[in-house]
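Second attempt. The first submission of DUF3048 domain-containing protein had a stray character pasted in from the spreadsheet, which I only caught after the job came back as garbage. Lesson logged: always re-copy from the clean sequence file. Corrected sequence (329 aa) follows.
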Amino acid sequence: MKLRMLSVTCALVLTLGACSDGEKKQAPDPKEPNKTTAAKITPINPLTGGQLKETPANPVFVVKVDNTPASAPQTNIDRADLVVEQTVEGGITRLAALYYTATPSTVGHVRSMRATDIGIAKPVNGQIVASGGAGKTISRIKDAGIPIHSQDAGSAGMSRDGGYAPYNVVVDLGELAKDVKNTQPERSYFQWAGAGAAAPKGPQVTSATVKFSRSHTTSWKFNSKAWKRTNGTSDKEFGARNLVVLWADEKSAGYTDPAGNPVPETTFQGGGKAVVFVGGTRVNAKWKKANNASTIVLTTRDGQPMKLPRGKTWIELLSKGESTALSAR
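This time the job returned cleanly.
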């Protein structure tokens, strides 16, 4: 009787997949990626849409770079993944150069931060690199949860070269990366098109001029491969596959610069008119950005979704209220 009960017990255990040979392995769920599949997943660069060999060991650095002849030449702007040109006081412009896949030993010349940088940095958990900033601006950026690294605060990697102040601050991003928390992006800057996606349709152009104000116009030329500035001050110009012109709301930042000029703040959220140059093709579009941390969503003028082709992008962030203009041919 005992022998019969033991046989029945063992039979039941075998049915459940275990007796003396251990647990029976279950078949993998085809809906769940296994370890082999997960290992083959390629990370995507949120700033370009391109594939990464591996996730960088640094966060996205948003370096504020002077854009006037006084600080020329700009150094290693071409190695940024994405650049935003923004209006500052007096109608001149400043660059926010976003570095993720490269951390050059010299980037400059570094200038002060603005509240506009909140909407530039937030989509990719960017960390701002600047020479310094007004107290109101620093407080707002910190309240937005954005790390700040500055010359004024003695941050790692910051130094001065042989030029004259305040146009001589440079940063070694490799050194700075050793001293910061590696916060990674959580979303893409734009909605990126898949590999092999059809090219957008539109008129063909080879040059463009973007007027920010009476004080500054940026001129561009398409050389069959990339858009490059023709009046820039960089030692080697940034090559953009996508040149994106956006019109956004602007307001007062609430203070003036040392010369008494009111400091503007471009609100990099909401939406408005856009013109997108993809290669030599011009596309009239609209843009939306739900909040400072959101991905930029592009649509054509008739409301059709427009995903940006993968590649380096330069954003011209214009004010709706200023006497701005765009011409292309």
